[in-house]
Each structure stands twice: as C-alpha cells, then as structure tokens.
Amino acid sequence: MKKVYINSIASISPQKTYDNGIFLDEITEYNDTVIFAQDPDYKQYIPPAAARRMAKGIKMGVVASKIAMDEGGIETVDAIITGTGMGCMIDSEKFVSAIIDNNEQYLTPTSFIQSTHNTVAGQIALGMECKAYNFTYVHSAISFESALLDAKMQLENDEAEHILVGGVEELGEHTTKVHRIINHIKPEAVTISEVLDSKTEGAVFSEGANFFVVSNEKTKSCYAELVAVETFNTLKKEKVSEAIETFLKENNLKLDDIDLVVFGNNGDVDFDGYYNQLFEGIFSKTPQVFYKHLVGENNTVSAFGVWLASKILKTQTVPEIVKINKINSSEIKTVLCYNQYRGQNHSLVLLRKC
Amino acid sequence: MSKGVAITGMGIISAIGNNVAENYDALINERKGITRVDNVETIQRDEIMVGEVKFTNNELIAQLNLPPENNYSRTAMLGVIAAKEAIASAGITDIKKYKTGIVSGTSVGGMDMTEKYYYEYLTDKETQKYIESHHAGDSTQKIAEQLGIEESLVTTISTACSSAANAIMLGARLIKSGKLDRVVVGGADCLSKFTINGFKTLMILSDTFNTPFDENRKGLNLGEAAAFLVLESDTVVKAENKKVLAYVKGYGNANDAFHQTASSDNGDGATLAMEKALNVADLKPTEIDYINAHGTATGNNDLSEGRAILRIFGDEMPEFSSTKAYTGHTLAAAGAIEAVYSVLALQNNIIFPNLNFKTPMKEFSMIPQTELKKKELNTVLSNSLGFGGNCSTVIFSKEA
C-alpha cells in the first residue's frame, strides 16, 4: 500500500486564510451568531460573467480548488471528491421559495440546475475539463471525511496519483433563520474569545471552502502525511476515549505519540462535553488546539481543522489564538483531529509530519 | 483486481412493487407503474405521469411502527423498507457480528418536508421537527438506526442520478480494502414538488408514458423508490456459508465535463465509465451479456448514452433495455433499483423488455430488447448518468 500525502492546501473561511503565505497572522474579530467567509478576489480566478451566475458556495469551491491546484503545481487530477453537508443552499432556497410563492408557476431552471449537491464538483470538473472520477459526499459533519477516506483508498491502491479533495458550505438566509428557531444557532452574539465559555446552546454558524491536493507521492510543497481517517455515525460520550485509543492502536500508536490534538469544539454547552472530557482525560498532557471560535460551525468546517493541522505540521508553529492549553511539544510529528456535530457523526483524522 | 464482491441480499420498494418478489413479478408480466401523481399536491398533476409508491406517508409510518413524534422524510421511510428487506434477505440476524456500514445515495433527501413546511417552520412548532431531517445525510442516519448499525461508517453520496451506482462502487471498494466486512449499499429518493417542477422547467418531463430509445420520445417520468444490496467480504461469505446472489464485478466513474445538466453528444463520460468498469472487471465488451441502460427517455440522454454504448460495443452489441418505462426515473435511487433488476436478470437468466418502444431513433440503428427474453446470462452492465456530468457504470456477474 502506498502512503498518502497532503501536498497542497487552500482555505476560504471567515478568517483571511485564502493566502497560503500567511498563517493566521491577523485575526478578524467577530461579535455575532452567524459569520460569513471572507472573499478572495474571485476575478483573479473566474471570468466575471461566469462568477455572476455562481452562488457563493460554487465560487468558494471553484476558487479554493484553484488555489490548491496552483500550490500543488498540477493542472489536472485523477479524481475530484467533494463533501458538503447542506449543499447549494442559496439556489435550493431560491427554487423552493419560488415554487411556493408563485404556486408552481413562472419558474426558471437556473436555480434548480445549481441546487444539486454535486454542482460544485461538477463546476470544478467543467472548469478544468477534467473527465475523471467525480464524487460528492453529503453526510452532515463527516461529508469531508468521507471524501478524504475515498481519496485515501484510491491513492493507497494506486488507482490514482493525485486527487483534489474538498469541503464546501454556504449560508442560506432561510436555512439560517429556521436553525435559529430550533436553537442550533447561539441566542446571543459572542466574540471569538467568548465562544468557548458562552455557556449557551447552539453554535456560531458559518461557511467556507477548504480544498487539498492529496497524492501518493510526496512533492516539495508537502504539508503532511495522511495516516488514517475514521468516521462513526454514532458514538456515546463515554465511549469516545476508548474509540480514540482503539483507533490509535490500529495505527500502531499510543496516546503519548500524539504531539497535538485539533478539537472541533464550538462552544455549544450541550455538546462540548464530548471534547471537555478529553482535555481533562486522555489528552490532559497533550498540546491542544481549536478553531471554531475563528471560523464558526458548518458541516464541513472539520476540513479547516485538517487545514490547521497541515499548517502546523509544515510550519512547526502553533498560533497563540488556537491554543487551548499551555503545553508545548518541542517537535510536532503526529497530529490527531477529532470532530463531531451535535453528538453524531464523529471523525478522527491522523496526520504525520512529512 | 478482477475478483468480484459478493452480493448476499437485496431489497426494493418502487412503483411496481413493495419488495423484490413483487418487482420481479411486474417485470416479467410487463406491468408498469406509471400513473398520475397522488401523494404530492401539485398543479402539474394533469400534465405529468410518475412512478409512484402508492402508500401515503401515514401508511408508511404505520408500516414502520414509527412513533407519532417521528421526523422521517418520505425518502427515509422508503429507504428503511428496502434496507430492512435487504438485511432479511441476506439472512442477517446479528448486525453487530461483523463490521457493518451503510452507503446510500439520495438527491431529494428531506426536501419533501421542507417544501411542505418551508414558511411554517418559522411559526409552527409542530412542523419544526422536520428542520433537522432536511439534510441529505439524515435519511441514511435513520436507516442505520433502524438496522442497528452503530459506531460505524455511515455515509451518503449525492451525485444526482448516479448516486446509488456510486454508493455500490464505494461499498465494493470498502469491502475490497478491508475497511468493512459488510456494507449495505443503495439509494432512496421520494417524489417532491421540487424535482417535479425542476425537471418541468428543463422541459424534459413527458406528459405520457415514457418511451426509452424511441425516436418520438417525449421525456422522462419521474419516479420514487428505494433499493439496497448487502455486500459481504469473502471471509464473511465463507464463515456464514452464505448464498451469493451475484457479484459486483466492475465499476467505473467518470465526468462528462460538458455541461451542468446536459450530456455531451458523443457520450464521452458514459464511454469512459463503461471502459473503466470493463477494465476493473477484466472483461471484454463481448463478454457482456445484457446492458441495463440508463435510458431515461429524454432526447439528450438516450442519444448520448446510445452513442456511448455504440462506441464501446460497436457491431457486437448485446441485448439492451431500459427499465425506466416500468418505474419512471427514480433519480438518486435509479442505480440501486437497476442493480436489483440486474441481479434478478442474472438469477433468472432473463432480459426485461424496454416497454413502449415503437420507432428506432434516426441517429443510429440501435433497437432495444422489446420482449421478455430468456438467455443464459453471466454478466450484466448497468449505466447511471446524471446532472453535473456524473457518469457511472456497474457490472454484475454470476461468478466471482
């Protein structure tokens, strides 16, 4: 079996992360319950006429994929695999509301065409004229990890050499409204330094696109080796530690071998317990970082966690703003990412310095 | 490389039957399930025909014994019915005995409830339980729960009309790579105003019975359905002394990269998908005994797919037919529905007819199989092509 490497990365998020030359050097402060992705200069990547027809998620996905491809120094790939939990919300909302508001009359196809979950992967393929394998995973908080696992299997078995993998999510106005009603969104605005201690239910909702070129050979831009990916549809709180230890064992690792953990805690008082028990439990002596205070919560934001881990592994620096505890490792060789959303769809991603 | 993955169980609910036996009976008796739509309130009712499962949501809730406070979308309920039949048919009584996962395909997901309660969600507490069942992964999560699959790999694919074919493909790879011992693969999609009106605006819905590969085809009939297969590793098959229904022998996925909704004139994507599948299966085109075509009966699909089939099979074309005239186009579920039909074809050495065909298309001389035909079948190739350029082919075989 071949080893798998993350050779390039790209992130469009509520922070200024689309420039790979910097690493959370300036932080954009928020005091809100919903935060939007910061736009790169889309014109640099997409002709304006085409960009006008694209909803934000499509634009973010297409541009993030181009940034990753540019950094990876490749023109085409053997597969394009995306993850999106909610899909193209903006066009879906447009089409549903048009159906209802106009009683199924005077409809035009554009928003329907762009509403399907595979629109972003399809548009990336169209843009690159890439006829290769093209998949879209749509399973809530593990959508991105499903894509990553698929890519990993193909690369290990040498069915592909380079694969573009990404997660993308856009905010839709109505969807945000209805999620606010069922308290999935925080009741009051919080600043990034308050999120973790907010003691309220719900999360700060967000959007973004994180893309990666993963390959079965290491290139000079390499960020990390992708060692393992595992997802769980359910996992009781009291079984998380055990699941992590089993996962590490399957990869011939012990808890001590982990130099840094990337947690997906989002400040939701009802569900952060999944992580808190680990801060104080099995990882009490391990450096820990988090990121959702900076970029919010969405179904594929765990891809930002992988972005963060990749950056840390390559630069061997841990920005102060992401640190949970004060423990430092002299060298960061092995990183574990753990995420779950509302107690379901847990994921573990294991990365190693390359 | 060419070793197939064992299929040990299957389940289905579609417009032509509520289980595998009923579907088979309808197929061999040429009974189609295309009618006016009853369970979706739409002003398009008199202008379209659909392949509808005739149970109301309340009847499905009662069948599944769901509590009144449940928040199942229709997609989830159809999915549970088919998945349970698949598990029973595989003779599985202890789901936890082996590492078991699910991969499902859907495009509609919980849109049926969202479009019903879209504005009500904002004010009506009763309806708000459905907000969480909107996202596509919800139906799969619920099927897993109903089957007792916990702490495992459960995921969902949405690649429009090729979703379920892709679920089968991923499932086969998960078994081959040893990631899972057993995986339930397939797809589910219910009818919705969203898809009815969406396809209506694209002007590809027929106002009468759909006629795949016919010169005068007027478009597709939308359908709803769910189907699942159980795939098991050789180790499990041996240990449990399992009866193998057929094998997933090959699979291929490619993107047409031509247009967001239309297929290229020459069917580049479909051609590539079939080529890849033949490669994985290590079979020559002449070794394919029957093609279950995607054949939606739209002008664009049948021409593009037909040309792709010609490019691969040339003068040595095996019998081919589309079963969409029976079931309608069941979107994300189609690849799983047709996988069940492909396995039935292999088991019974029978080719199902392409109903409603009269006039050959002027662009080529391909004539589908129009009558039920007995033929010794060892391999069946099934195509699923979709929006976003997604093209998939799965090859099923009698022997591993």
Q: Which stretches of chain A are low in confidence, meaning pLDDT under 50 for 5 or more residues running?
A: none
Largest interface, C-beta closer than 8 angstroms, per-chain residues: A-B, 69 and 68 residues
Largest beta-sheet details of chain B: 10 strands, mixed
Could you give the order of the helices and strands of chain A?
Answer: EEHHEHHHEHEHEEEHEHEHHEE
The biggest beta sheet of chain A is recorded as:
10 strands, mixed
Task: State mean pLDDT of chain A (0 to 100 scale).
Answer: 97
CATH fold-level label of the largest domain in chain A? Peroxisomal Thiolase, Chain A, domain 1
> How does the helix and strand content of chain A classify structurally?
alpha/beta
Oligomer classification: heterodimer
Number of domains of chain A: 2
* CATH class annotation of the largest domain in chain B: Alpha Beta
> Structural class, from secondary structure content of chain B?
alpha/beta
Please give the CATH architecture of the largest domain in chain A. 3-Layer(aba) Sandwich
Low-confidence blocks of residues of chain B = none
Q: How would you name the CATH homologous superfamily of the largest domain in chain A? A: Thiolase/Chalcone synthase
Radius of gyration of chain B: 20 Å
Average pLDDT rating of chain B: 97
Nutshell version of this structure?
The complex is a heterodimer of chains A (354) and B (400). Chain A is α/β, with parallel strands linked by helices. Chain A has 11 helices and 12 strands.
Structure description:
The complex is a heterodimer of chains A (354) and B (400). Chain A has 354 residues and is of the alpha/beta class. Chain A has 11 helices and 12 strands. In chain A, helix 2 packs across helix 5. Chain A starts with a strand and ends with a strand. Chain B has 400 residues and is α/β, with parallel strands linked by helices. Chain B folds into 2 domains: 5-239, Peroxisomal Thiolase, Chain A, domain 1 (3-Layer(aba) Sandwich); 248-397, Peroxisomal Thiolase, Chain A, domain 1. In chain B, 32% of the residues lie in helices and 19% in strands. A 10-stranded mixed sheet of chain B has the order 5-4-6-8-1-9-15-14-10-11, sandwiched between helices. In chain B, strand 14 and strand 15 (390-397) form a beta hairpin. In chain B, 64% of the residues are buried. The interface between A and B is large, with 69 and 68 residues.
